[in-house]
Structures are given as C-alpha cells and as structure tokens.
Design brief:
13% strand; 45% helix; 212 residues; single chain
Length: 212
C-alpha cells in the first residue's frame, strides 16, 4: 500500500516566515535512531569552523534521545546552538514549524527508503542536505534544491559548509522551484495518479519502468 506524506493543499497558500539568510536556522525532523546518523551530524556541526555557529533544531523522539542530550550538554559549543525540541506536531502546525526554517538536514547513514520528510520539506520549498542512501538519490538526483553527500562525518561536514554558504548567499536555492517540483511529482494528486495507473494496468506500468 502507498505511504503518503501528511502535507495537504493548505500548504500551497502558506507564506513562510524565515529568519535572515545571514543567520540561518536548520532543522532535522524524524526518529532519533541509529540509522539516521544524528551523532554524525553533531560531530560535523561541532567542526564547522563557522563562528558563530548557526542554530540547529532536532525534532523527534526515539532511543537515542538520552545519548544525544548527553553529547550536547558536554559540549559548550553545541549547547550554544543545538536544541532537542522533542516530538513535532501534525497537520498545519507541523507545516508552520517546517516552513520557518532555512533548510532541512537528513544525515542518514544506512537503511533508508525515500523518507517522507524530504517530500514534506520540498512542499514548503526548503533546501535539503542529505546523504546518498537507499532511495534518496531517486529524489535528489537532478534536483537543484538538494545537496547530497556520501555517508561519513567528513563528507557531512564539507556538505554542511557548502550548504550553509549557499543558503547565506541566497543565490543557489529556490523555494518556488522546489514547491513546483513537489506539486508536479510528489503532491498527493500526483502520487495518487501514478498508483491509479499502476493498479489499472500493472504489467504495462512495470514494463514501461523496466524499459526506462
């Protein structure tokens, strides 16, 4: 069965309110579990050589919460700019929170399909930094509003510097373009249309995709 993201048509009229590009705010949304690479993210963040460090909010819950809290509390540098925000809400409140950031970071290190948070971030036009894991390249390849790096701390650190630099310069990423891509390829009507065509004629659908 298809797994749909929770963004509906209400977002299409939403006007995001973001902080100045000179003071970018980034966020992670998702489960606090091992494959997501959040300890790697914290290590890379602490080695960015950018002062002052931009703010990073980590939204979600999971088995790594105590470990992440310990890492942050032991580092005065991380304590000054990284916040564990806890579980995030659903619906329009989630849309409003997501829209308020300048970028999304998903540092997954293993075992991913296509995380729904990437589609949700695209629906509000957020630029994304993520990793070459699982089904993520299917979404990120040829998407100019996504920076994709290899797994590992060094690749993540270099990717973050590049990502933040372009957010601050305000010339590489386009919220309007990212929302347009979402509407044409990943909105609920677009996804439902693909599923309906597949269910109507599965053999033709998969033979077409195989030929591609």
């Amino acid at each position: 069965m298809p797994c749909f993201h929770q963004i509906d048509s209400s977002i299409y009229q939403f006007k995001p309110s973001v902080t100045p590009l000179s003071q970018p705010r980034l966020a992670y949304f998702g489960r606090l579990v091992g494959n997501k690479g959040i300890p790697f993210l914290l290590d890379a963040w602490s080695r960015l050589d950018i002062l002052p460090l931009p703010s990073l909010d980590i939204w979600g819950s999971g088995e790594l919460k105590a470990e992440l809290d310990n890492i942050i509390r032991k580092s005065p540098l991380l304590s000054s700019c990284v916040t564990l925000k806890g579980p995030y809400p659903n619906g329009l409140e989630y849309v409003n929170i997501l829209s308020s950031y300048n970028g999304l970071v998903l540092p997954s290190q293993s075992t991913e399909g296509l995380p729904l948070v990437l589609l949700e971030a695209a629906s509000v036009g957020l630029p994304i930094l993520t990793t070459r894991v699982g089904g993520i390249p299917d979404f990120a390849n040829s998407n100019p509003d996504v920076v994709m790096v290899e797994v590992g701390q060094d690749a993540l650190r270099l990717g973050l510097k590049y990502f933040l630099n372009h957010i601050q310069r305000g010339t590489k990423f386009s919220r309007t373009r990212h929302i347009s891509l979402f509407l044409s390829q990943y909105s609920r009507p677009a996804i439902e249309s693909v599923w309906l065509r597949m269910l109507d004629n599965p053999s033709m659908f998969f033979s077409e995709r195989t030929a591609l």
